[in-house]
Amino acid sequence: MQTPLQITFRDMPHSDALDIHIREKAQKLEQFFSGLIGCRVVVEQSGKHHQQGNPFNVRIDLTVPGSEIVVDRQENMDVYVALRDAFDAAKRQLENYARQL
Length: 101
Hints:
Elements: E1 6-10, H1 16-32, E2 38-45, E3 56-64, E4 67-76, H2 79-100
Parallel strand pairs: 1-2
Antiparallel strand pairs: 2-3, 3-4
Helix pairs in contact: 1-2
């Protein structure tokens, strides 16, 4: 990547384990698509569902040549499941972008 990976945690404490997990997932995306310019990941814990718990939301913004790919609102009660779903969606969108090239 030309720009460093940006990871933001909102409404939750920073987690070194999550940070490492996100970096590993982003590195796999970069290996999959070498033209990746940048990646921003936002993990937030929503406080709006008091009776059901607070689900985690993940947003990924990928910068590729001539475009930007956005994966938004991958929500789950387990942050690792939300991250997996978000990065799987990002990989599918990267595949579609690569086919268009």
